[in-house]
Amino acid sequence: MAESQQSERAITVEAPTTGMELFGTDRTVVAIRVDGVLRDLAAEVTVGQVVEPVLISEPDGLDILRHSTAHVLAQAVQRLFDPAKLGIGPPIVDGFYYDFDVPEAFTPEDLKKLEAEMARIVKEGQHFRRRVVTDDEARELLAHEPYKLELIGLKSKASGDDELGGDNESVEVGAGELTVYENVNRDGEVAWFDLCRGPHVPSTRIIANGFALTRVAAAYWRGSEKNKQLQRVYGTAWPSKDELRAYQERLEEAARRDHRKLGVELDLFSFPDEIGSGLSVFHPKGGIIRYEMEQYLRTQLIAHDYELVNTPHITKSQLFMTSGHLQWYADGMYPPMHLDEEHDADGNITKQGQDYYLKPMNCPFHHLIFRSRGRSYRELPLRLAEFGTVYRYEKSGTLSGLTRVRGLTQDDAHVYVTREQVKDEVARQLAFVFETLRGYGLSDFYLELSTKDPDKYVGDDAIWDEATETLREVAIASGLELVPDPGGAAFYGPKISVQARDAIGRTWQLSTVQLDFNMPDRFELEYTAADGTKQRPVLIHRALLGSIERFFAILLEHYAGAFPVWLAPVQVVGIPIADDYAPYLAEFAARLKKRGVRAEVDDSSDRMQKKIRNQAKQKVPFLLIAGEEDRSAGTVSFRFRDGSQRNGVPLDEAEALILGAIASHAQVLTADDLAAAQA
Known catalytic residues? Predict the structure, then answer.
């Protein structure tokens, strides 16, 4: 529900009551906010407190529904798979998961059994009851649960979550007091309980409308490879069966579009074991798509007054000490290579060696380019851009096709400006981002503003506030929706992220614009101002596609492999009705190649219909079919991706149509699309 709608439903309490008494008759309400804090419907409220209903359809309501469903899953697991030990079970985007320590890995058949048991628990209509406990009481209750005991030891009555890891443990503890949630049967007996900070839906019956278990994965306890590997069961829950079915259909469509599957089917890229995990190679067809992607962006960069640079893949450690990456991100970097050490004949060190690192970021190199000579205010804004390959030692369990790799090419840019130029340049960068992304066929955007992590930042608070407010003003002026991301900024400055929705409604973080008042100080960057004084520039970090590899995957899934003509690895395939007509089509294909078109002729021994099917599977935009009638008339017949045809097109017109479709960047699936692209 929108904030304005929520405020309209807010109630200022005039007599002691409970959320259930206020909203219990409305089945769409699953919890309440008391002075802005989420509480169970059963919570007591006092005079003067402001109470708002939390609807099951709003984000907080969905999280509560899904976390409650995770509890039902855990109860089912312990009923069927004793002695299962409990990890954690947080809500996540579109669902939930729960981690378990069980003797054997779960199978697909086990998931079916668990769903059936969850349905029985839901039908029992158990109530969720919150119970405040002391540390000692919690340890006694959970003496048989080693992972819960560890969380109690890490965190119980502390008010923050600083001692907890980054794997969602805060759903269990850390809300200022330690609580257990009991699942209570209709006869009042406790059927099951779990350490949890809540809140939860009032009854398991609310879960009945739409839940499903989706998959099993292995996960290390608290996200550390040093800990035991647990079984993670994923699931989803929705307010209605219709919403569940719609979500499942989206998952099925996403599976059909999975870039890893399409990458094999279309022969685009692979991950050879001989090279290493998370390190991809692009095959010829993938390589030409990548080339076109990069060339389009290079053209855009030059047109928008960027200067292209290149930097090496490795550097001495001191560069990353200066930038702060070694202090903040060493765990995500590849180990150092100790080089340049020299020895005498007796093995004594005569020259000390140095540590070199594969670069995880391009930015420090660009700062050295800026610093390589004196700079004048007349040169600013100075926009440096690079397609720089960087290396990050991602955990093996997080790697996922091209969307999470260990070697990636960033379309990195760093813009050096005066303080007076900051706001205009940020606005210019955002406009550049939107224009360029639309050129790739993405157009549905919103913005996210990532602000300072209070435990992980450098620089003065006042500077951070100034930078954050500048980004906020520019984002609002864009007219797009702006979503807050508290604590999501990098250690050196806040950022705006451009979130793009793809063809099936999924959201991807793409471009980022980060404002940095700190790195110029660390690198002692300066320019000569109009009055002759030396001044620090302000730095704007800008990544447009994020990484070439990840953006490749996003486009592949967005288009389901059917790229627009300009990106298609093969744009035209000639299909002769019989072998006699192959030379005619080959001559036209050669003519197209001279104009830069990726054209070829299928001269295989397959029958014509099989050739058409084979090329359709490869999602070729234009199939040009020719027989005696076409050869005699100097024409071809266009066949489009949807199977429609346009017959008897003269060769000159066919060439113009193909070149026009490529130049327009339009997606051509049908004859009507081609006509629209021409228009």
Answer: 363, 392, 410, 412, 414, 495, 541
